[in-house]
Design brief:
The protein is 50% helix and 15% strand. It has 14 helices and eight strands. Helix 3 crosses helix 8. The radius of gyration is 18 Å and the shape is globular.
Length: 256
Amino acid sequence: MYVNLQPTQLNLLGLPLHKVDMAYALDHIESFLYSDSSHMVVTLNSEMVVMAQRDLELKEAIINADVVVPDSVGILWACGFLGHPLPERVAGADLVYALLEKGASKGWRFFFLGGRPGVAEIAAEEISRDFPGIQVVGWHHGFFESIEEGEVISSINSARPHILLVGMGVPKQEKWIASHIHDLRDLHVPISIGVGGTIDLLAGKAQRAPLWIRNLSLEWLYRILRQPQRFIRACALPRFVFLVLRFKVEDGAKDE
């Protein structure tokens, strides 16, 4: 029997966040495979926190997730600043690669849902070379209309994956998983994760920052320089800092 781990849960600006490192996150997610339910994994970053303050549907999806991991240096800074330091960043892309590596040795089945038409298929081909023995049992692009929803669900049902990787971007992917969690439970899909642009990374259609830039916690800046259109999204960072500072002041005032 596999022991179901229960990590410490924090509260960050009204959102749950689990105090995990990569190894703990992997073990906790693996424990979901041994239950009879479906589980949602959220990789929380600063932009999502800001969005969730106004987008109640996104906020509810995050609150109802089974595990929420810290996916940005902003999250690590905020928790440390508020007196609840986290062990490390658990980046979504790193988590996916770690799951693929572990899954290749354990026979886990993966389904890719996201990216432009053809990209998920290329990703499947690429990781089949990178992870010998990996089982990618299906894929579907993320640009489908609501009328095609049944076809997508049917594809997942036929494939019966252990892990569904949903790369539709925030907040669409979190809302999609949350709204279909009961369908996924009926399909016996144990784990669903919103992975943003990771499917593009797997397909070689996008590139991560070099490791030395990631080690300096500057991956966000690298993305902006390579994709200037992301600058508008990056404007959420000052707002995030403001929200954290305001919470700190208000929380301190309560203690006086």
